[in-house]
Amino acid sequence: MKVLVVDDDVVSRMVLMHLIDSCGQFEIAEAEDGEDAWQQLQQGLRPAICFCDLRMPRLSGLELLQRLRQHEELATLPFVLVTSANDTDTVTEATQGGASGYVVKPFQADQVRQHLDALRKNQPADYQHYAEEPSQTLARLGISAERLLVYLNGFATQLGAAREELAGLLQQGQQSELRQRLERLHAGCTTLGLSGAASCLQQLQVMPLATPAIQAALEEVLRAVHYQSELVLQSGTA
């Protein structure tokens, strides 16, 4: 799993990298400021999470976050702000802008670990992932790994929006439209090679629809999407 650390202060950057390394097996990339990080990301760097200092020359942490959230492939990248204790207002602004959270200097190992654990939390030890090998999906669709990540990220966004949309359709009694939406999501799973997730949605089509079942199915599909994205990143082709 790749982790990007962005900080213009060398000592802070090294300390944070050491703490990340102590939390497990991670491939750590570093950037000396926001502009350096942005250039690396533009050149193809695809970390699973980014720890970024708030105040830096050339491009601040908040400015980098804004660029990421507007980028097709990087919009969903977990972004943890690195800040001092007196930056409360800016942290609030960053959280509203899409930051995943923050860690406060001087660093504490538990603060760092909780964000890294959150990445793995969606994949319990007993989670069984049934899906096509990423290399097979790439060959079948004739696309690059980068493009597959775009599709997976886009599908994750679609799933997030579907929660309220499907709940609304159910409340309005629009069963036909609801099942059509579920069928489109099923088709998306099939296209992306997510056989387990597709099977999960298929089961909804043969049972009475209820909000808890729909929400549980969407969570399962989203978990599969995140897991498959991690497999693509780990493959080294992205």
Walk me through this protein's architecture.
- The protein is α/β, with parallel strands linked by helices.
- It has 2 domains: 120 residues, 3-Layer(aba) Sandwich (Rossmann fold), CATH 3.40.50; 101 residues.
- It is built from 10 helices and 5 strands; from the N terminus they run E-H-E-H-E-H-E-H-E-H-H-H-H-H-H.
- A 5-stranded parallel β-sheet has the order 2-1-3-4-5, with helices on both faces.
- It is globular.
- The two termini are 12 Å apart.
Mean pLDDT: 85
CATH overall fold name of the largest domain = Rossmann fold
User: Which range best describes the helical content: under 10%, 10-25%, 25-40%, 40-55%, 55-70% or over 70%?
Assistant: 55-70%
Shape: globular
Could you give the distance between the termini?
Answer: 12 Å
Strand order of the largest sheet: 2-1-3-4-5
| CATH architecture label of the largest domain | 3-Layer(aba) Sandwich
Return the CATH class of the largest domain: Alpha Beta
Estimate the strand proportion.
Answer: 5-15%
| Counted beta strands | 5
For the largest beta-sheet, the strand count, sense and barrel status come to:
5 strands, parallel
The domain tally reads 2
Features:
single chain; 238 residues; alpha/beta; Rossmann fold; 5-stranded parallel sheet; 10 helices; globular
Please sum up the structure shown:
By secondary structure, the chain is an alpha/beta fold. Helices cover 58% and strands 10% of the residues. The mean pLDDT is 85.
